[in-house]
Write a structure and sequence with these properties.
5-stranded mixed beta sheet, 3-stranded mixed beta sheet, 1 helix, 10 strands, about 15% helix, elongated, binds dinuclear copper ion
């Protein structure tokens, strides 16, 4: 019989307790709170973005009065479209994908802040109440031209 030191036994018990607590937390979250991994997330072949509608024609689409959808393609080192113009009060849902590496999609002073991962479509909505020129920036380091990767949103 191998002799296990008392402190080692205490340490092992401590480790097992943490494991039990974490498993209980995950189980509770899944069963009681209904947490599940994201489902119905859009995927896209990053090599075929240019042939995949609606990303084959990136840009702004009006779907109702004051309601828009904007399809963006992020690539090293820019966004397509580079600039869009919308009326004040417009609600825009952005759909963004990348053709190459991980990028960011960030519009300061709004809630628009998401990562853009090749193979996936990121989506975020915002209502632009205040007129002005909004900067769109890549805030995920993506290579040597990262700091040049920007666009703008004109709210009139
Ligand atoms: Cu794209 Cu940084």
């Amino acid at each position: 019989m191998v002799h296990v030191h008392r402190f080692e036994k205490i340490w092992l018990a401590f480790g097992l307790c943490i494991l039990a607590v974490l498993l209980a937390t995950i189980t509770t979250a899944a069963i009681v709170e209904g947490f599940v991994p994201p489902s119905r997330v859009q995927t896209i072949d990053p090599a075929k973005v240019a042939q995949t509608p609606p990303f084959d024609h990136p840009g702004l689409h009006q779907i109702a009065k004051g309601v828009f959808e904007a399809y963006y393609v992020a690539h090293i080192f820019g966004f397509e479209p580079q600039a869009i113009a919308i009326p004040a009060g417009a609600r825009v849902t952005f759909f963004v994908t990348s053709t190459d590496v991980e990028h960011g999609f960030y519009i300061p002073a709004t809630g628009v802040n998401t990562m853009v991962t090749p193979g996936w479509v990121s989506s975020v909505s915002h209502t632009f109440k205040t007129p002005g020129t909004y900067l769109l920036a890549c805030h995920e380091y993506c290579g040597i031209g990262h700091q040049l990767m920007a666009g703008k949103i004109e709210v009139k």
